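A reminder from the course coordinator: this example appears on the midterm review sheet, so study it carefully.

Given structure:
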């Protein structure tokens, strides 16, 4: 119990310090002040953990691995985590120009048409920041996590209060489906991952590239079918130095969402929209995303 209390106290202290620094320092100075700590943490973790890809990769995603590259990736990841502590500030002039968003007109069109909006993503880049940047742009996005709401870490529940439009939920879990449907009906974008674990009956194999398929979780597809929602691919690209780009792709054609028979083609449509970003930053393709890739029988 004492360890839990100490951990909570440490998290809250870090939260207060980072928010204080953010208010006092320009963005560049804040970045430079925190970079040595992130670099030290990345150096230690790179030295003591096996960071090489542990599974074979498709040829279209192969990249030269090096400890230096991995260390830089980790450092960027740790620095990006800092932005989780002040999502309310990302809407302000100090931060707004640090994230370009392409495709906002697709969200606007869906709203005009009275269509619910589902944003499908995979875990490449700082995907947790998508909803904060979209909220800053006037679209109060939320994310579906699965699990139970009561199991979320206390610090995460505390941070929910600091998002723009805090009265509108930022996160939904399995025990909040009624609230989730009301959220969608109000025209708010809901982010759902395509590369999360799940039972095999809730996955569909989607062609990825030569000799490979992607075992896609069908949660976004099932919800889009049920709610007659626009299903839009969403990617966030880390351009370094706390500069980002969000790409909202073309909506999946309605005929591909009419029933389960069209889901492999719907998944392929989503992946094709995202493929340029996978190939541009293949070193970021890892974790759950890589575990969802599978060699086809003809290529083994």
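Designed residues:
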């Amino acid at each position: 119990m004492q360890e839990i209390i100490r951990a909570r106290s440490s998290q809250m202290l870090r939260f207060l310090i980072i928010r204080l620094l953010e208010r006092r320092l320009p963005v560049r100075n804040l970045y430079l002040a925190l970079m040595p700590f992130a670099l030290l943490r990345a150096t230690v973790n790179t030295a003591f953990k096996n960071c090489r890809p542990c599974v074979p990769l498709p040829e279209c995603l192969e990249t030269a691995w090096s400890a230096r590259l991995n260390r830089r990736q980790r450092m960027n990841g740790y620095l990006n985590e800092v932005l989780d502590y002040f999502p309310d500030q990302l809407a302000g002039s100090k931060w707004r120009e640090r994230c370009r968003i392409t495709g906002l007109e697709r969200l606007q069109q869906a709203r005009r048409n009275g269509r619910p909006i589902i944003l499908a993503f995979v875990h490449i880049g700082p995907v947790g920041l998508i909803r904060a940047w979209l909220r800053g742009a006037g679209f109060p996005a939320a994310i579906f996590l699965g699990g139970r709401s009561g199991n979320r870490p206390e610090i995460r529940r505390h941070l929910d209060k600091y998002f723009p439009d805090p009265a509108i939920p930022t996160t939904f879990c399995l025990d909040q489906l009624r609230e989730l449907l009301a959220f969608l009906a109000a025209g708010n974008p809901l982010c759902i991952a395509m590369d999360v674990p799940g039972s095999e009956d809730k996955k569909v194999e989607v062609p990825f590239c030569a000799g490979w398929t992607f075992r896609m979780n069908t949660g976004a597809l099932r919800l889009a079918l049920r709610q007659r929602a626009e299903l839009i691919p969403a990617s966030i690209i880390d351009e370094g130095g706390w500069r980002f780009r969000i790409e909202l792709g073309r909506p999946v054609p309605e005929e591909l969402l009419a029933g389960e028979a069209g889901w492999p083609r719907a998944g392929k449509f989503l992946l094709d929209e995202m493929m340029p970003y996978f190939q541009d930053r293949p070193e970021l393709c890892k974790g759950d995303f890589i575990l969802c890739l599978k060699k086809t029988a003809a290529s083994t």
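The mean pLDDT is 89. Residues 90-299 form one domain.
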